[in-house]
Amino acid sequence: MALGMIEVFGFATAIVCADAMAKAADVKVVAIDKNKPAAGDAAKVPLVMAIKVEGSAAAVEAAVMAGKREAEARDLYICHKIIARQSEDIEWFAHLSALGKDKLR
What are the pLDDT digits (tens) for 5-22? Predict the structure, then answer.
């Protein structure tokens, strides 16, 4: 199974990109994760989001390119990476997400 990841600025951008990615190819969105970089206050949008998808290598590539187009159209694209065949050692890592873990109880 392949893993695709794309980083974008902003939560809303991540949702729009994840939607485009899921519609572009037969992939599963396995996580939408956040990261507030140290230089976040100086960024266009002070929140970096990562969208992670799994599927066949061809489907993941098509999905990541669709997400990239959506983010670039908003000038909020950062980077992407496709792992054509993820090892079992890191497969569990793809499903980790920090979203919601910072809420007060």
Answer: 999 999 999 999 999 999
Span 44-62, pLDDT tens digits: 556 889 999 999 999 999 9
Is residue 94 within 8 A of residue 30, CB to CB? The reply is: yes
Distance CA 50, CA 22 (A): 14
Q: In terms of CATH architecture, what is 2-82?
A: 2-Layer Sandwich (3.30)
Question: Residue ranges per domain, the chain?
Answer: 2-82
Q: In what order do the strands lie in the sheet with 77-83?
A: 28-35, 48-55, 2-9, 77-83
